[in-house]
Specification:
CATH topology of the largest domain: Lysozyme
Number of helices: 14
Helix content: 55-70%
Radius of gyration: 19 Å
Strand order of the largest sheet: 1-2
Pfam family, one: SLT_2
InterPro entries: Lysozyme-like_dom_sf, MltB-like, SLT_2
GO biological process, one term: peptidoglycan catabolic process
Largest sheet: 2 strands, antiparallel
Order of helices and strands: HHHHHHHHEHHEHHHH
CATH class of the largest domain: Mainly Alpha
Protein name: Lytic murein transglycosylase
GO molecular function, one term: peptidoglycan lytic transglycosylase activity
Structural class: mainly alpha
């Protein structure tokens, strides 16, 4: 992580610890969202968010579609076999093997640098966005701000909302940027604060842009390494790196699916 990103993270954490007494009041309906935005703007300003980020927050709207999606993640309650079928595991594996064969140098370089094998990165990429074919159609700022306002998981999403506003202010995303329903960005669906923590300029163009495949794959590998990935160790249930896959997504069926698909791609 660059020095500038380290400073941004430090400022964000300082703001969260020093503004707790004046924290914006969460809610469970759209009714209090505008009042929450006004209070949350003070927290954003304390992090150092400038006019662009604050204006993006002011223009954001309560995202009912995000709330609906957050309450209805039914695929994570499927059996493993059903989950693999619904998510198209066989297609992901087949296309993943083709992608690995077509660009071995990229995946070898990523494994050399971060220790994460191709199969894991490819399985995540395929699972999250079908290899970039659908990266979302929801406004990122509205989605993530709505989740920060919503009482269900406000503490979890508040740092991501602040990070999203920092990214707008610095021109990494715009107020119109779209992503997934929970505000995730790019090929492998990073939440904004994870972009600040683990984002990598993989293609060397001077910016972290997770809608670019190389940046997204490098950032994903960097995230997994940051969570404790041990090069050369296994990643199936009970093996050392399975805990790192668990850090990527909390759903047990998702974790098992990634491990299984990755092994098939790597075989």
């Amino acid at each position: 992580m660059t020095r500038s990103l380290t400073l941004l993270r430090a400022a964000l954490l300082l703001a969260l610890t020093t503004t707790g007494a004046q924290a914006a009041q969460c809610g469970n309906t759209a009714a209090g969202y505008d009042a929450w935005k006004a209070a949350f703007a003070q927290e954003a300003a304390a992090v150092g968010v400038g006019q662009r980020g604050l204006q993006a927050l002011a223009n954001s709207r309560y995202a009912q579609g995000t709330i609906n999606a957050d309450r209805n993640q039914k695929s994570f309650r499927y059996s493993l076999d059903k989950f693999l079928q619904v998510r198209g595991a066989d297609t992901i594996v087949a296309q993943g093997r083709q992608r690995k064969a077509a660009n071995p140098g990229l995946y070898d370089a990523l494994e050399q640098r971060y220790g994460v094998p191709a199969g894991v990165l490819i399985a995540i990429h395929g699972m999250e966005t079908g290899f970039g074919r659908f990266m979302g159609d929801s406004n990122v700022v509205s989605s993530i701000a709505t989740l920060a306002y919503d009482c269900r998981r406000s503490d979890f999403f508040t740092p991501h909302a602040l990070a999203a506003l920092i990214m707008v202010d610095r021109g990494w995303i715009s107020a119109q940027t779209v992503g997934a329903r929970h505000g995730e960005l790019g090929h492998t669906q990073f939440l904004p604060d994870n972009v600040l923590r683990y984002g990598v300029d993989g293609d060397g163009d001077g910016r972290v842009d997770l809608t670019r495949e190389v940046d997204a794959l490098a950032s994903t590998a960097n995230y997994l390494r940051g969570k404790g990935w041990r090069p050369g160790q296994g990643y199936q249930p009970g093996q050392p790196n399975y805990a790192v896959i668990q850090a990527w997504n909390a759903a047990s069926v998702y974790q098992q699916a990634i491990a299984l698909m990755a092994a098939r791609i790597d075989s």
